[in-house]
Amino acid sequence: MRDGLCTISEAQEYLSIGRTKLYALMDAGEIPYVKLGRARRIPRNSLALFVNKHLEGGTRL
C-alpha cells in the first residue's frame, strides 16, 4: 500500500474482510475515515493501528 489514504477496496483487501463489515467498523468508529465528496477514504496508518489493537487484545472481529 502507498502512504496516505486508501480506498474501500484496498482496505477490504488489507484486512481480508467484506465491504459490509468494513462499513460497519467505520460507522462504529473503530476505523477512522475521511469523507471526500461522496467517497470515504481510510488513512493507511489507521488500518495498521486497528490490526495491532486487535492482535494485542486478542479480540475477534
What is the CA-CA span between the terminal residues? 22 Å
Rg computed from alpha carbons, rounded to a whole number of angstroms? 11 Å
Class from helix and strand fractions:
alpha+beta
Count of individual beta strands: 3
Supply the number of helical segments.
Answer: 3
**How much helix, percentage-wise, in residues?**
40-55%
Topology:
Elements: E1 5-6, H1 8-15, H2 19-27, E2 34-36, E3 39-43, H3 44-57
Antiparallel strand pairs: 1-3, 2-3
Structural write-up:
With 61 residues, the chain is α+β, with helices and mostly antiparallel strands. The chain has one domain (5-56). The protein contains three helices and three strands; from the N terminus they run βααββα. The mean pLDDT is 89.
Could you list some keywords that capture this structure?
61 residues, alpha+beta, three-stranded antiparallel beta sheet, 3 helices, 3 strands
Short description:
By secondary structure, this protein is α+β, with helices and mostly antiparallel strands. It has helices at residues 8-15, 19-27, 44-57; strands spanning 5-6, 34-36, 39-43.
